[in-house]
Amino acid sequence: ENVIIISGEKKSSERKKDSTYYLNEIHYGRFSRSFKLPANVDVDKIKGSWNEGVLTIEVPKTEIAKPKKIEIN
After folding, report:
1. Phi first, then psi: what are they for 23, rounded to 5°?
2. Predicted TM-score (pTM) above 0.70
3. According to the model, what pLDDT value does residue 1 have?
4. CATH code for the structural domain at 3-58
5. Tell me: the pLDDT tens digits for 48-72?
6. 10 Å Cβ neighbour count for 17?
7. Which of 30, 32, 51, 71 has the smallest set of CB atoms within 10 Å of its CB?
8. How remote is the C-alpha of 18 from its chain's centroid?
9. Contact 7/31 with Cβ under 8 angstroms?
């Protein structure tokens, strides 16, 4: 079963003392997400990177087996 699990923790930032919030929808604390990967994924080549608050995960597909031509005399 090919499943990728992403988990982490978002820590709360300090609020400015002179700021007023009417609604604050930013959630803090632990999180976890799991995704089932298709069968044609090369799990050994999965890469992840973090840049400016954005997590990018590259999930390459395996090469499709090409038909092999066999000559019969």
Report:
1. -150, 130
2. no
3. 75
4. 2.60.40.790
5. 999 988 999 999 998 877 888 888 9
6. 5
7. 71
8. 37
9. yes
Single-letter amino acid code for the residue at 50: W
Q: To the nearest whole number, what is the mean pLDDT of the chain? A: 85
The span from the CA of 59 to the CA of 15, in Å, is: 37
What's the DSSP call for residue 22? S
Long-range contacts of 6-13 (CB under 8 A, 24+ apart): 6/32, 6/33, 6/34, 6/35, 6/55, 6/57, 7/31, 7/32, 7/33
Query: Could you tell me where the DSSP H helices lie in 1-73?
Result: none
Q: Enter the tokens of residue 34.
A: 């799991």
Q: Which two structure tokens, joined as six digits, stand for 37? A: 């990967």
pLDDT score of 35: 94
Four-point Cα dihedral 57, 1, 29, 49, nearest 10: -10
Q: Quick one: what percent of the chain has pLDDT higher than 90? A: 42
